[in-house]
Amino acid sequence: MNLELRKINITDLKLGDQMKVENGTLTINEKKIIDELKEDVNIKDVKVDIAVPGEKVRIIPVKDVIEPRLKIEGEGKGFAGVSSDMAQLGSGKVNVLNGAAVVTIGDVVGFQEGVIDMWGEGAKWTPFSSTYNIVVDITPIDGLDPHTHEQTVRFAGLRAAEIIGEAANEVEPDEIKNYNLGNVHEETEKYPDLPKIAYVEMLISQGLLHDGYVYGVNTQDILPTYIHPNEELDGAVISGNCVAACDKITTYQHQNNSVILDLYEKHGKEINFQGVILTPEVTTLAGKFRTCDYTVKLCKSLGADGVVISEEGYGNPDSDLLMICKKLEDEDIKTVLITDECAGRDGMSQPLADTTPEAKAVVSTGNVSHVVTLPKADKVLGDDRAIATLAGGWEGCLENDGTIRCELNAVIGATSEIGYHNLTVKLY
């Protein structure tokens, strides 16, 4: 598969009568977005606003973040199997509005989602403070059952990204990135002396607001499955997870999966990148044995010498992470784990819910329980009272003057376990 990502750098954002890009400025026709989204009979109201880096704007509660794109050559338009007909993704040419993001907000059922501050203390904890954000506030009609409510909001965000992506039509890119990987046999013939490395990407698959999707299929319903890395970069994997904002993998982060991009960078130089195995994180013990055994079988079938494993979420998925690690190491397949820590506000508690002696190479992406103070915003898009129902928030954490004290848990992408975040690791 050969995928060409043609990046059009966005350096400013404004509302206007057209949808266009001119000299790096993305103009958004909000009426077009509202009118098209309201064609969904389940949507009662839509509001569109913008937020740019440095503005004293708070966005809350955030449901998902999506990168607007337009496929100009090849199979599949938008998010195949979800917002468009099913097609094989991973090949062709895609115009990317690089630096722009669609941020969906509005009430969702049950738990709410995260917060993005575009300035100051809050900005340094989330990568989405540096993107030019089109904020889409979606209100479904009354009376929807919880699953339909969640799906309505999720689909609206994806569709909004497609509508905005049309602004990239016939715009020349500032940068072109090519991603080309043959099958396992072809790549091994080219690089016979390089270690064969696979990537196991774990996805939360635990029910309403705790699910990922592959070509629109809920990962609750799949066995671990092999995909070409280009498929994920081309929009085959989307987020339906809405609980702990800090380590939820947003759709934007799937489209720009840092582990895949880093493995691509080293492919043919230090390693032979074998591809991606998507592994559901289920809640039953029998399910965990099934998915872990199946994941190990796929890694062995690929002939992998080593495996990078990234987690989504924490708590019971820690067991899946460590079970896969142990089983692979028992098969003499080396592992590197990527996880965040739930180590308490003082950082002194046990960071993972499980452990195993075989887990010797572990990358931490931060402590989700770290408490931050976010000063009052000049403008709030959404409802800052939602902080009380976010993971990482609590009743009273929104102070009378608009200041928020919360754990990193509440900040979108703060401890991303695929490495698309701002934190780093310091040895001492």
UniProtKB/TrEMBL annotation:
List of catalytic residues: C242 (schiff-base intermediate with substrate)
> What name goes with this protein?
Beta-aspartyl-peptidase
GO molecular function annotation:
oxidoreductase activity, acting on X-H and Y-H to form an X-Y bond, with a disulfide as acceptor
Q: Does the keyword Ligase apply?
A: no
Q: Note the superkingdom of the native organism.
A: Bacteria
**Modified residue Pyruvic acid (Cys) is at which positions?**
C242
Cite the entry's keywords alphabetically.
Pyruvate, Schiff base
Q: Does the keyword rRNA-binding apply?
A: no
